[in-house]
Amino acid sequence: MFRSIDISTSGLVAQRQRMNTIAGNIANQQTTRDADGNRSPFQRRLVTFTTQAAPDGKEGGGVGVNYQVEVDTAAAPRLVFQPGHPDANEDGYVAFPDINLTTEFVNALDASRAYEANVAAIDVTKGLINNTLKILA
């Protein structure tokens, strides 16, 4: 039973990282320069999930989740015509990150629901453990 709490906890950690990554994407939606001050738009970050290896090396059974934050290098920057902007190119276009606010909010809602589901699974497991202890006592 404690293994199920570990699995749900790994899901909580992964979804928290996903929310942090989404928040970073939203915060950098208008960022046109990199950390060194060069003209380079922020690149959207994505979180990918993989299953953890089974602790005993056997197939099947419950396993946790691992996550990895990746940079979306496939998306081209969004060019906006703003000739007065300090980061505009010679044609007057500014390269902004290709971050869609609606997509980020939907992803945040999905991550929030997944987080809530993992909390509910932990609560159910705790209830099972408590009831088992009551029966044994």
What report would you give on this structure?
With 137 residues, the chain is an alpha+beta fold. It has one domain. Helices cover 45% and strands 16% of the residues. It contains 2 helices and 4 strands, in the order αββββα. It has helices at residues 2-27, 101-136; strands at 45-51, 65-71, 78-81, 93-96. The strands form 2 sheets. It has a two-stranded antiparallel ribbon. The protein has a two-stranded antiparallel ribbon with strand order 3-4. Helix 1 runs antiparallel to helix 2 (101-136). It starts with a helix and ends with a helix. The model has no long low-confidence stretch (mean pLDDT 91).
* Unreliable residue stretches: none
Distance between the termini: 18 Å
**What's the tally of helices?**
2
Question: What's the structural domain tally?
Answer: 1
Count every beta strand, where a strand is a DSSP E run of 2 or more residues: 4
Largest sheet: 2 strands, antiparallel
The largest sheet has its strands arranged as 1-2
Question: What's the average pLDDT?
Answer: 91
Helix content: 40-55%
Which structural category do the helix and sheet elements fall into? Answer: alpha+beta
What integer value in Å does the Rg equal?
21 Å
Q: Percent of residues in beta strands?
A: 15-25%
Oligomer: single chain
Described by the principal axes of the CA atoms, the overall outline is elongated
Query: What is the N-to-C order of secondary-structure elements (H for helix, E for strand)?
Result: HEEEEH
